[in-house]
């Protein structure tokens, strides 16, 4: 038996104990509020049995239910809320129609018994809530909130009984106050269950975290659509992205990496589906390392004083824009190659044009992972490079696709 099943069984046992205690105390004292709360606890037993059944059946998968029966737990939560509403109705009915009066001679014993029941309820509800949140079980969380209503109602009943010791007739008033706690808990559980059953989106914080994880990969150009829904304790996520590669094998590798990262950083993700398509661009942005004079191509990539960044029209190689950027990490003591590579990726470059190759070096790995082409240069100066824009550059880029 797994942890959530064990807790569900414990819940049944605790609720049975509370029903026995309250039933005896209600008979002993003649308290209307306590009698109504006994009915409330009896519905808890039914609710807890339903929770345990829901936990067991929700794990099953079949051809008819390939995504599992996780939502059974949310359906069970919905049933729990209905049980809570029914308990509230029973309390109101008892207050209005029951003809009972307190038996003052037994009130001290009743007060002690209700205090004991309150303590049991408080301790177990906290335990079940923590465990439900830990393993992500909505039915356990709902059951813990359900049981917690017993604690609040018991406190109100306790006040009414103590008032009875001093001759105050507030037992029925206490019973009506209990109804407020009962319906408040029921409404919260009902709304949360309905949201999941109707496939409402996952909370904003979780979706924003997923979005950040996807966009963190430099090969991802944009996210067109992002969806998420809950199913029981699990999350289902779907994304439509644009990726910077025409290589299907590489694109699949990128999406698998993103899926694993999402599952690592976001709890209880059962299924991720990422649709991808290659980036369609009319332009290509190039980066070239230059010496201090801004003319000679630098052979020391990480230490290059400047970088020439140009944007070309892909169709004919014509120059659309160009600019010189000073290397922000040229004077760093360590990791200049990787740092400047990451800086260039922020500039959204598509290719690097350099006199030297990056085989086995940090920049090579960074650019390769990001889908950036590394093109060996035959030119010695920027002017030579400009003269060969259309013939050499565009041919080199297309040969890498």
Can you offer a commentary on this structure?
- The chain is an alpha/beta fold.
- It has helices at 3-29, 32-57, 71-97, 107-135, 138-165, 171-197, 204-216, 248-265, 336-346, 362-370, 382-387, 389-400; strands at residues 220-231, 234-243, 269-278, 283-290, 306-313, 319-326, 351-354, 373-376.
- It folds into 3 domains: 3-197, Alpha-lytic protease prodomain-like (Up-down Bundle); 204-278, Alpha-Beta Plaits, CATH 3.30.70.1350; 283-400, Nucleotidyltransferase, domain 5, CATH 3.30.420.130.
- The strands form 2 sheets. The protein has a 5-stranded mixed β-sheet with strand order 6-5-4-7-8, sandwiched between helices.
- β7 (351-354), α10 (362-370) and β8 form a beta-alpha-beta unit.
- The protein is elongated, with a radius of gyration of 34 Å.
- The two termini are 54 Å apart.
- Mean pLDDT is 79; it is low at 396-401.
């Amino acid at each position: 038996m797994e942890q959530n099943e064990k807790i569900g069984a414990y819940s049944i046992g605790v609720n049975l104990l509370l029903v026995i205690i309250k039933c005896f105390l209600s008979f002993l004292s003649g308290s209307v509020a306590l009698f109504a709360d006994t009915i409330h606890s009896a519905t808890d037993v039914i609710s807890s049995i339903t929770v345990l059944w829901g936990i067991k059946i929700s794990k099953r998968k079949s051809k008819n239910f390939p995504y599992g029966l996780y939502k059974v737990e949310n359906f069970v939560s919905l049933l729990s809320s209905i049980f809570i509403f029914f308990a509230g109705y029973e309390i109101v009915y008892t207050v209005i129609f029951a003809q009972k009066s307190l038996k003052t001679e037994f009130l001290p014993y009743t007060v002690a018994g209700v205090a004991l029941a309150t303590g049991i309820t408080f301790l177990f509800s906290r335990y079940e809530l923590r465990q439900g949140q830990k393993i992500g079980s909505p039915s356990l969380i709902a059951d813990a909130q359900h049981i917690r209503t017993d604690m609040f109602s018991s406190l109100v009943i306790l006040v009414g009984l103590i008032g009875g010791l001093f001759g105050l007739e507030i037992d029925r008033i206490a019973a009506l106050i209990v109804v407020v706690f009962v319906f408040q808990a029921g409404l919260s559980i009902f709304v949360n269950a309905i949201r999941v059953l109707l496939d409402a989106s996952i909370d904003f914080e979780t979706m924003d975290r997923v979005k950040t994880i996807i966009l963190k990969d430099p090969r991802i150009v944009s996210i067109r659509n992002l969806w998420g829904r809950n199913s029981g304790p699990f999350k289902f996520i779907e994304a439509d992205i644009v990726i910077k590669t025409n290589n299907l094998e590489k694109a699949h590798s990128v999406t698998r990496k993103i899926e694993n990262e999402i599952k690592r950083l976001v709890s209880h993700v059962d299924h991720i589906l990422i649709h991808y398509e290659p980036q369609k661009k009319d332009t290509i942005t190039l980066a070239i390392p230059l010496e201090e004079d801004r003319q000679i191509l630098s052979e020391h990539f990480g230490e290059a004083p400047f970088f020439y960044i140009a944007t070309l029209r892909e169709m004919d190689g014509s120059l659309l824009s160009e600019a010189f950027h000073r290397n922000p990490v040229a004077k760093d003591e360590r990791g200049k190659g990787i740092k400047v590579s990451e800086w260039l990726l922020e500039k959204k470059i598509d290719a690097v044009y350099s006199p030297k190759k990056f085989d086995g070096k940090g920049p090579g790995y960074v650019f390769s992972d990001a889908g950036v082409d590394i093109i060996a240069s035959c030119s010695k100066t920027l002017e030579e490079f400009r003269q060969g824009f259309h013939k050499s550059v565009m041919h080199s880029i297309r040969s890498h696709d």
